[in-house]
User: Fold this.
Amino acid sequence: VLDTITGQVLHQSRVPGGAQPVHLVACDNWVVMHYQNPKRTRFELLVVEFYQAKADDGPWDIIFGGAKTHNHSISAHYLESPVPLQQTYIFQAGVTAITTTAT
Assistant:
């Protein structure tokens, strides 16, 4: 997955045994890929979600109002890279298409 602003690689993953057909959809902060794994005779669904890198300060920011923020100009070139979390699921059937919906 590439950051389209900076060109930085945000996440890469190798899928051992993955084969065609491959269907992929990306939206906001997640990517879903469906593919066949003939080595294990099944279909798999790989999900990657990206989260903002932030230290957990516990309840102190809520209780005491947190650190005061200043209005600074922020550029995508200086933001921290998001934290990717990846999980693979066994999927019971092959799909012919995959997309997002608006609700």
Summary: The beta strands are 19-27, 30-37, 42-51, 83-91. The chain has a mean pLDDT of 85.
